[in-house]
Design goal:
The complex is a heterodimer. By secondary structure, chain A is mainly beta. Chain A has no helices and eleven strands. In chain A, strands 2, 4, 5, 6, 9, 10 and 11 form a seven-stranded mixed sheet that branches. Chain A starts with a strand and ends with a strand. By secondary structure, chain B is mainly beta. In chain B, strands 2, 4, 5, 9, 10 and 11 form a six-stranded mixed sheet that branches. A five-stranded antiparallel sheet of chain B has the order 1-3-8-7-6, with no helix packed on it. Chain B contains no helices and eleven strands. The chains are: A mainly beta, B mainly beta. At the A-B interface, β10 of A face β5 and β10 of B.
């Protein structure tokens, strides 16, 4: 089946620092990847759509200068949380629909990255 | 604003019984519907997708879709304690984007 990995699985950082999270599709190519954020006891909220070879598309209310997204290849997207603050502490999850084969709308999720900002 | 509504629960079901999870959506143009299972502290896992009206069965899981009523459900037969999780209903918003419901927390009691 389609496998998506994320690294790191958890990170603790000081307020004001930047944190980079990687999302990789291991056995398929993904021209599009999605980044979600999930706060405790809440559902997934889409932050942005990462597009290979072009700029990311951000959802309303998400600061593009704070959450930098780079889709460097057909198997890698990165999310950088810049100048992180305690309110950015959350569970960040990426997902990817296969570019070829499978169902067009099926998405496979990475294991998530738990970010804690002190 | 496209919306997906679920009863947040918690829903408690005895082991061996049928668990029934429901979801309604606002966008009549939606074409793809998904059920994800999420264990505490983990990311969502796709368990069912359904695209046409009617029932779709996969093992102990049955997804039901009624586009006229804008309603999708998930039935879990012979519920097991390992089925205890939060179940997320998701509906496509076009361009492969998904809109998620708030999730229903299901507990299977031994």
């Amino acid at each position: 089946g389609a496998v998506v990995s994320q690294h790191p699985s958890w990170v603790i950082c000081k307020s004001g620092t930047s944190v980079k999270i990687e999302c990789r599709s291991l056995d398929f190519q993904a021209t599009t990847m999605f980044w979600y954020r999930q706060f405790p006891k809440q559902s997934l909220m889409l932050m942005a759509t990462s597009n290979e070879g072009s700029k990311a598309t951000y959802e309303q209310g998400v600061e593009k200068d704070k959450f930098l997204i780079n889709h460097a290849s057909l198997t890698l997207s990165t999310l950088t949380v810049t100048s992180a603050h305690p309110e950015d502490s959350s569970f960040y999850i990426c997902s990817a629909p296969p570019a070829f084969g499978g169902s067009y709308n099926e998405q496979f999720f990475g294991p998530g990255t738990r970010l804690t900002v002190l | 604003q496209k919306e997906v509504e679920q009863n947040s629960g918690p829903l408690s079901v005895p082991e061996g019984a049928i668990a029934s999870l429901n979801c309604t959506y606002s966008d009549r143009g939606s074409q793809s519907f998904f059920w994800y299972r999420q264990y505490s502290g983990k990311s969502p896992e796709l368990i069912m997708s359904i695209y046409s009206n009617g029932d779709k069965e996969d093992g102990r899981f049955t997804a039901q879709l009624n586009k006229a009523s804008q309603y999708v459900s998930l039935l879990i037969r012979d519920s097991q304690p390992s089925d205890s999780a939060t179940y997320l209903c998701a509906v496509n918003e076009g361009a492969q984007k998904l809109v998620f419901g708030q999730g229903t927390r299901l507990t299977i009691n031994p």
